[in-house]
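P.,

For your records, the input lines for the assembly:
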Amino acid sequence: MVGREMTAPLLVFFVLAALAVIGAISLILQKHPIHSALSLIVVMVALAGLYLLLGAEFVAAVQIIVYGGAIMVLFVFVIMLLNAGVEEHTSISKMAGAPGLLLVVALAAFVAATIARSADSIQTTSQAGEMSSTLGISGMIFKEFVYPFELTSFLILVAVLGAIVLAQREKI
Amino acid sequence: MVPTNYYVILSAVLFGLGVFAFVFKRNIITIFMSIELMLNAVNLAFVAFSQALGKLDGQVFVLFVIVVAAAEAAVGLGIIILIARNRQTLNVERVDLLKL
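Structure tokens returned:
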């Protein structure tokens, strides 16, 4: 793994990974929520590119359509509807700064240590890229996972009803 | 071929940044967006392991996660609109009805 030359997929990975991380950092640094939302769209498009690199075309398309399209449009719509302004900072957030940063670093170190320990147990068996992953996914959704799949339709129905009840004008 | 480790490390970094944003941001909409960022990081790990193991289960799970995220966004933004209407603010520090 060490000392290999820079192949094209590796180069694409690093470009997309840098784009995703920069977008995520920009989400944190931006003061206005609309700028954070646009940064999040950059992260999601970069992740869609990574899914394509992994040979998951269907997931990449769903990522663009559902996340980049529907969910982020909902976010931007709500930000504009509520006329959200620049975020105001309070003294509490500054006080929580040092311990919070420490805990985030500890979490990242813990995750990295777990990955490093379990890296050898993941053996790359076969390359799934040969078979069309969309064909395989559709087979799995409608055969093995058909019951959870039907449950998700019920979940969406409940979510739609909940959103309607929450957003209606009358006092609840 | 890109090693699976790289994807998982990127996923961990994105998840860490999501946790960071969740803890530090004060705007309720930005906090909600950081939850979406964490869900995306987990999705990346799912797809990476799905490719490493040569099985498609991970990609099916990602589709379910995306469906749940969409439902969560619909309900969560409804709650945010309700909070903004009742409290006239989007700052989580000012939403303190349950605070002693």
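Two observations worth noting. Chain B has three helices and no strands. Chain B has a mean pLDDT of 88.

Regards
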